[in-house]
Fold:
Amino acid sequence: MNEFEKDVQSNRNDAIDSGIGFVVVFGFFMTIFAIAQVIDLLF
Structure:
């Protein structure tokens, strides 16, 4: 075991961080898509 495995900076679960990142990116692209659909509908 190396020294970095003994002295970790964060004990949080990586799956939670990955899930939050996915939701944020998905929300961003859904927002862009929704704006594009509204513009397409109006013009």
User: Anything to note?
Assistant: Residues 13 and 19 are 10 Å apart (CA to CA). The first helix runs from residue 3 to 6. Residues 18-42 form one domain.
